Amino acid sequence: MADVVAKERKILVAIDEGEESAYALSWCLKNIVLENSKDTLVLLYAKPPRAVYTALDGTGYLFSSDIMATMDRYSNEVAECVIEKAKKLCRELNDVKVDMRIEHGDPRDVICQMAEKLGVDMVVMGSHGYGAIKRAFLGSVSNHCAQNVKCPVLIVKTPKSAAVNK
Amino acid sequence: MADVVAKERKILVAIDEGEESAYALSWCLKNIVLENSKDTLVLLYAKPPRAVYTALDGTGYLFSSDIMATMDRYSNEVAECVIEKAKKLCRELNDVKVDMRIEHGDPRDVICQMAEKLGVDMVVMGSHGYGAIKRAFLGSVSNHCAQNVKCPVLIVKTPKSAAVNK
Fold first, then answer.
1. Model-level pTM?
2. A142 contacts in chain B (CB < 8 Å)
3. What's the complex ipTM?
């Protein structure tokens, strides 16, 4: 298989506002991406639309417009911060080629679709992703992707004592 | 964290009689283990005891002694074959230091316990593991380990068209 012997690998790293994705990215940069390699890191940030929360199941009535508005604001405010944080990590840890992607949709679907569309050799992500709040509604993104992404999936947990930026 | 900056990594690869674990091992040898590195590959083969099957749940009555005996024979017969196949892959693909481990118990528990006990930096495994028959009783080993192993877990699916030994 090409993905096995390829020298120029394309590695998709799913990033979000959670520390787990920042740690997953840093771990990948230090343990997976070869220095001076031709690897390309695709940083994928998925912004789940409101529909993701309301369309989940019969519990939609739980989400008041206040909560929705708060979550939307939160999502928009952190987006730029997350992207900058990720790029900074890449610059600091490894001089790898980075391709930034921002997609709208259920992170579970976005990650699976982009992995397929871009033909990446590997997907790297935190063990949960998308924070405690969203996870409560989305369920475990990593579980879904591990089962549905065709290429190898690396799930990185954040050790309790880990300092993400070290 | 030590596992982030360590130069001498210990990578646990869960192997079984399934092609998925053989592919996972080969993918790991080609994409994760650095050539001429000080990485140590721990090949872990878990042999689930009979108790695993009978103690699962109320469906125990489904397993006749014939089926149990057949599964036990099958398990014992393939063990040596699996280990030799794995060692052969390592010799062929990468001159990495290999540490062979055979443990008895529910593969899900054995993999999580050994990862912890050996303090490995990473666990690599096929997306299911333990074959169609055992998987029906054990459930997905990779799902369980991805959720319970503390270190990063790489889940490798076998592409439909992949030839494991190429």
1. 0.77
2. 146
3. 0.74
